[in-house]
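Today's session is about reading a structure prediction critically. Students often jump straight to the picture, but the first step is always the sequence itself: look for stretches that repeat, for charged clusters, for runs of hydrophobic residues. Only then move on to the predicted structure, which in these notes is written as discrete structure tokens rather than atom positions. Here is the chain we will use throughout the hour.
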Amino acid sequence: MMSRIREMGHDVEEYGYRFAQDAEKQQERMALAIDEQTGLARRNNELLEETRDLLRENLEQG
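Below is the predicted structure for this chain, in token form.
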């Protein structure tokens, strides 16, 4: 019985360690995804501005 309790305690410690590592990896993945989304949003804004400018030019030319 005592060995099973010790074994369960070891499992909990190991799980806690893995959980912390998994959380850290997930946080890194989220940071990369946020950076990628930010870059895509900036590029989208640039394209919208270019489109706006082209439409203005087109309207001015008649």
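Discussion point for the tutorial: The helical segments are 2-61.
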